[in-house]
Amino acid sequence: MTSSNEYGSHSWELMVIVDHQHEEVQKEFFLQVTGDLHIGGLMLKLVEKIEIPQDWSDYAFWWEQKKRWLLKTHWTLDKCGVQADAKLLFTTQHKMLRLRLPNMKTVRLKVSFSSVVFRAVSDICKILNIRRSEELSLMKQSEGTLKKKKKKDKNSKEPATEDILNLCNSPVSSGLSGNPGLYSKTMTPTYDPISGTPASSTITWFSDSPLTEQNCSILAFSHPNCSPETLAEMYQPRTLADKAKLNAGWLDSSRSLMEQGILEDDQLLLRFKYYTFFDLNPKYDAVRINQIYEQARWAILLEEIDCTEEEMLIFAALQAYQISKLSLSSEAQDFTCESEADEVEAALSNLEVTLEGGNSSNILEDITDIPKLADNLRLVRPKKLSLKAIKPYWFVFKDTSISYFKNQESAQGEPIEKINLKGSEVVPDVNVAAKKFGIKLLIPVADGMNEVYLRCENENQYAQWMAACILASKGKTMADSSYHPEVHKILSFLKMKNWTMSPQTVSDPESTDMKPECFISPRYTKKYKSKQLVARILEAHQNVSQMTLVEAKLRFIQAWQSLPEFGLSYYIVRFKGSKKDDVLGVSYNRLIRIDIATGDPITTWRFSNMKQWNVNWEIRQVAIEFDQNVSIAFTCLSADCKIIHEYIGGYIFLSTRSKDQNETLDEDLFHKLTGGQE
C-alpha cells in the first residue's frame, strides 16, 4: 500500500494501455493521478514511465468506453470527465486505411483517425491530387448490398497485395503538415487538357510524392473493363428500395473515423457524395475527372441510374472505343515528352472542354433584356380511362412561365392557360431515331404533381424549349448566362444519339474483339445477342470517334448529368401523418417525395424555398419549413436521419462556393449547416 501522504488524499489510480510495437515492453500502465492534472501532463507522466526512446508526437488518448479522443491537452481530467473507472488507450492518431476508389482500385494510405471525417477526406484528396474534396466523402459498404456468395467469403483475404496501391509513405498522410505534398497552390501539377497526362513542367512534383508516374496513371486513366463474370457478381439494385440501400453507409462528417467504429486497415469506399462538380478543369483535374467518369460508368453499368437504350449505346461507345483504347495508348506514352501545343493552344483547348457553362460577360444583357420564345408546339395531357389528347397550340415562353393560345393571332389576348414552371420537374422524353422530341413537365399543385407533355418538331426547337424549362424550374430566365451553354449541351447530346449506319466506316462486328457485356448494363445484354450489340455500339461510335481522351470523358459526364435521375440519392422515409412508406430523393437543389410502388414523383420542395430545417434527436425526425407556411416532417427508415440532414446542409454549403475563394473552405460553416447538434 502507498501512504496517502505521498500522493495526497485526492489522488487515484488510472489505467492506460499503450499501443506500441515493442513486444518486450509492457503495455498496461497504472498512473497515480489527480483530477486537476491536465492531459498534456498525463502524457508526459506516461512517456517518462514507458522509457522507450521514440517519437510520441502522433500519439493521443482514446477513451474506449466513451468512444472519444482526449485531444485538448490543456483540459484537466476532471473537465474531461475521466475518473478511476476509465481505461485509456494511448495510440497513434494516424493509422492505415484501405480505400476503394470510384474506379474500383484499392489504395492503402495513412489517415487521421482523430480528425473529423470532413478533414480526413481533405487530407486524402491532397494525397490523391483531387481538388474540391468537399464533394467527396467516405462510406461503409452497406450490408444489404453484399451478395450471399460474398458473405461466404467474408473471412477470406481481401484483394491481393499487388492489387492494392500502397501510398503509405505520403508526407501528408504521415501527419506532417509542414510539407503540403502535391496540393500547394504554387505547386499544383498541371495536365495536358487533351490527353490528361501530367505536363512536363510539373512532372517533378510527382517524383517527390507517393503519387509517382505509375500511380498517377492508375488514378488518372481508365483501365480495361472488368469481365462480365465480375460484373454479374456485383450488387445491382432492382427497385427504388434497393437503390436506397446504396446510400445508407455514409459516415458522419462531423465525427472521427475512430468514433464511428472504423479500425486500422479497414476498407471504406471513397465516393463523390455531392453531385455538384465545381470548377472542373482538365488542366488540374485529370484524376478528379477520371474518378467522376468511373463513378458515372459504374452507376450506369450496375443500373443504379436508369437510362434509355439509345443513351446506353452512347455510353457504351464512349467507353469501348474512346476511353479504353485511348487510355491504353496514353499509358504507353513517355510522360516526360514535351507537348507540341504551346500554352495559348492549351488554354484554348481547356476553354473548349471545361464544364463551366457560360461566362459572365453578358451581365448587362441579362439585366436589360429578358428574351422569350414563341412557336407552335403540341400539348399532350394524359387522361385517365382514355387516350392522350394531343393538340397543337401557339406557345409563348417568358420569364419562368409558359402560356399557350389557340393560335398565333389570339396571342395578344388572354391565354388558355399559363403554367409557372418554378419548382417543377423537367424530364426529357426523347427518341432521336423515331424523331420524337418531347418534354415532360411535372407541375407542383396542392395535392401532388400535374403532368403536362410538350412535343417539339425538331432538335433545335427542342433544345431551346428544354433549356428554357430547365432554367425556369430553378427560378431562372433565359436571360441567365447559362441558357445558351445549356442549349449547346442538349444539342451536342442529341447529336451523339443521332447516328446512321455507314457500311464503309463500320467494322465487321464478327472481326471486332469486343465484349459488349463489359459496356452495357445487364438489362440490355439480356435483350439482344452479342453480335447485335457490337453492331449497334459501332454505329453509335461514328459520332464520338473524333474526340480526345479528356473530351470523351467530359462528354460521358455531361451525358450522365443529362439523365433525369442524375444526382438523386434515395432514402426510404415515413412522412408524419402518413400510414405508408415513401421514397425521398435528395438532389442538389430539391427534395422529391416519390411513390415507392410506382416510382412516380408526388411532391417537390426546392431548397431555395426552405426557411429552416432541424432534427428531433429523441424521435429521430427531420423537420423542414418552407415558404408559404409549408412544413414537412419525416423519419428515415433506410439510414440514420443524420445522413439526410447532412445531405441537405451539405448541398446548401456547396451552393455558397465561388471561384474567388482561392479554394479555401469555411469548415465551421459546413459543420454548422450539417451538424444538427447546435
Automatic annotation (TrEMBL):
What residues does the PH domain cover? Answer: 378-474
Among InterPro entries, the record links this protein to:
Band_41_domain (IPR019749), FERM_2 (IPR035963), FERM_central (IPR019748), FERM_CS (IPR019747), Kindlin/fermitin (IPR037843), Kindlin_2_N (IPR040790), PH-like_dom_sf (IPR011993), PH_domain (IPR001849)
Record has Oxidoreductase as a keyword = no
Q: Which Gene3D superfamilies does UniProt cross-reference here?
A: Phosphatidylinositol 3-kinase Catalytic Subunit, Chain A, domain 1, Pleckstrin-homology domain (PH domain)/Phosphotyrosine-binding domain (PTB)
**Which keywords has UniProt assigned to this entry?**
Cell adhesion
Any single GO CC term annotated in Swiss-Prot or TrEMBL for this entry:
focal adhesion
Gene Ontology MF annotations:
integrin binding
Q: GO annotations under biological process?
A: cell-matrix adhesion; integrin-mediated signaling pathway
The family note in this entry says: Belongs to the kindlin family.
Q: What is this protein called?
A: FERM1 protein
> What organism does this protein naturally occur in?
Piaya cayana (Common squirrel cuckoo)
Recall the taxonomic lineage recorded for the source organism: Eukaryota, Metazoa, Chordata, Craniata, Vertebrata
